[in-house]
Specification:
Helix content: 40-55%
Mean pLDDT: 93
Number of helices: 7
Strand content: 15-25%
Number of domains: 1
Distance between the termini: 19 Å
Radius of gyration: 16 Å
Number of strands: 7
Order of helices and strands: EHEHEEHEEHHHEH
Largest sheet: 5 strands, parallel
CATH architecture: 3-Layer(aba) Sandwich
CATH superfamily: P-loop containing nucleotide triphosphate hydrolases
CATH topology: Rossmann fold
């Protein structure tokens, strides 16, 4: 999208699903895409597929993100979807790197530390990585990042502890999208 492209020119909204690793972002975003007809972009997969990293941090066991390469790729994806009249639901554990103009709703998923501990253990996260992510969830790091990076009106904090929570969040997005389309047509 060009810098002057904003949500009034698009026919479908774009949603960012964000939160600490393990809160259910990809599952929720996939379900939103399926149920309300948006294109799902798993940003972590885009990073892997297109090698959008500058190296590896062995201590944290993670890649060092090449933000410029990622944002250039995603800019093209967003433009293609806008041209095709398709909305996007993207998921990623960070939100501050994305231009504010890309998203009309930022859904910040939160989960209990007990659930998060179990999910990260199931993923075989190292003790250090698991502890850092639990601390990030407790300290509301991603929620605060979202509140600092986007208009407060579009940032929604929702629970993601159960399948029922996920279904409720998808329904919430469906209702929100219907209103967005009505307001922007």
């Amino acid at each position: 999208m060009s810098d002057d492209n904003n949500n009034t020119e698009r026919k479908r909204p774009n949603i960012l699903v964000t939160g600490t690793p393990g809160v259910g972002k990809t599952a929720t975003a996939s379900l939103i895409a399926e149920k309300i007809g948006l294109k799902h972009i798993n940003v972590g997969e885009v990073i892997k597929q297109h090698k959008c990293y500058e190296g590896h941090d062995a201590e944290l066991d993670t890649h060092i993100l090449d933000e410029d390469k990622l944002l250039d790729l995603m800019e093209n994806m967003f433009q293609d979807c806008a041209d095709e009249n398709v909305g996007i639901v993207a998921d990623y554990h960070s939100c501050e790197l994305f231009p504010e103009r890309w998203f009309d709703l930022v859904l910040v998923l939160r989960t209990s530390t007990e659930n998060l501990f179990d999910r990260l253990t199931d993923r075989e996260y190292s003790e250090k990585k698991r502890s850092e992510n639990l601390e990030a969830e407790i300290m509301q790091v991603v929620l605060e990042e979202a509140r600092e990076s986007y208009d407060l009106e579009i940032v929604q904090e929702v629970q993601s502890n159960t399948v029922e929570d996920m279904e409720s969040n998808v329904e919430r997005c469906r209702v929100w999208m219907e209103q967005w389309i009505a307001n922007n047509s």
